[in-house]
Amino acid sequence: MAMSVSVVLPTRDRPEALGRAVRSILDQPLRPLELIVVDNGTVGLAPELGDEARRAGVEYCCLRYEPPSTTATRNLGLERARGDIVLLFDDDQIMPGGFLQRLVALYEQDAAGVIDGIGGLCRQDPRGLGGRLWSVASCLAGECCWRPRVQAARYVRLPAPLGRQLSLPRWISGGAISLRREAAAAERFDETMTGYAYSEDREFCFRVGRRRRLFLAADLQIIHDNAQSRSGDSAACGRRYVRNSLHVAATAMDRGAGTWLLVMHDFIGTMLLHALWGAALGKRWNLGFARGMAAEMCSRAAAAVRDMWGGDSDPARGRPT
User: How many CB atoms lie within 10 A of CB 50?
Assistant: First the structure.
C-alpha cells in the first residue's frame, strides 16, 4: 500500500484561486488521505469544496485561525495532519497531474528512512510569457542567492536512484515542502514572523535543515500563479521582506561577513527586479514593493549611523513582522 499523504493548505480571501488549487489536488491519480484547509481570511469558505473532496474519497478538514499569520496557519495544519507524508501547499498554486505519485515514490525508495523532507520547485505559470520572463529576470538579479553551509543532508549518502533525483536545497518554497510525519509532528514555523510573513519558509528550511535531512527534487514542480499573490499594501510588503530577511540572516544563517554580502546582493537584486519590472510593464504593485524595500533599507542604514554615533536605538527595530 502506498504511503498516505496529508495536504495542508492555508488560505486567505482568495476563493477562486483556492477552488483551482483544491481541484488540482483532487484531480491527482493518487489522491491524498486528507486535505486540511486553514482559513485565515474574512470572507469564509465555500462549503462545496468539502463536498467535492468527500466525493473524491478525500477526508476534508476546515480549520479557522485569527489573526492573519502565515506561520501560525501552517503550524496548525502540521499539528492536525495524520498522513505518512505531510505536504504544505498554497492557495495560489496548481498541482500538476501525477505530482503526489512522484512524491510518494521518492519516499518509498528511501527504505532506510534517512530522508526527513523533500521539497519541490514552484514555477511561474508557463502559459504566460510574463511568468517565464520573471523567472529569468529573478535568476539574473540574484534573488534569493544565499544559502546555509551547515545542512544535515550534506552528510547523507543516498542510494544511486535517489541520489540522481535529489539534491541539496538552497531553500524550499513554503508551498512545496513535504515532511515525514515524525518531522512534521516535531517541527514548527517561527511564529514571531507574523502577518503574511515573507521568508518564513526560508527561515524554516535553514533552521530545520541543520538537524533534519531535507532534499530538493527538481522534477517535482508546482505551478505558481504570480498574479494571485499580489495583494495588500505593496510598500508594507517590501518593508516586511527586508525585515524578515534580516531576521533570518541573524537567527538561522551561518555567521560571517560573506553572509551579509549575499543578503545585500539579494536585496539589491530583488529591489531592482521589482522596480524595473514595474516601470517596464506599469505594475504599480511591484513599484510599491521596491519603494518599500528602499525605505526600509534607508531606515536601517540611518539607524546604524545613529548607533555608531551613540544615539538611542529603537528596541523594537529588527523584529520580524
Answer: 18
CA dist 135 and 231 (Å) reads: 20
Q: Residues 186-206: what's their mean pLDDT?
A: 91
β pairing state of 93-94 and 166-167: unpaired
Q: What is the pLDDT of residue 144?
A: 59
Going by C-alpha positions, the residue among 265, 187, 257, 223 that lies closest to residue 90 is: 223
- DSSP E strands, the chain: 5-11, 34-39, 59-64, 85-88, 93-94, 117-124, 166-167, 177-180, 214-224
Do residues 25 and 89 make contact, with C-beta atoms less than 8 angstroms apart?
A: yes
pLDDT band at 140 (very low <50, low <70, confident <90, very high): low
C-alpha cell at 282: 506599469
How many Å apart are CA 13 and CA 27, to the nearest integer?
Answer: 23
Say what the pTM is. Answer: 0.87
Report the pLDDT value the prediction gives residue 4, as an integer from 0 to 100: 97
Using CA atoms, how far apart are residues 317 and 296, in angstroms rounded to an integer? 11
Res. 316: pLDDT tops 50: no
Q: For residues 199 and 193, is the Cβ–Cβ distance under 8 A? A: yes
- Exposure string of 160-178, with b = 16+ CB inside 10 Å and e = fewer, is eebeebbeebebbbbbbbb
- Report how far residue 13's alpha carbon sits from residue 11's, in angstroms, rounded to the nearest whole number: 7
Report the C-alpha gap between 321 and 197 in whole angstroms: 7
CA distances, 295 to each of 43, 78, 207, 304, 320 (Å):
32, 35, 28, 14, 16
pLDDT higher than 60, residue 227: no
**pLDDT > 90? residue 258:** no
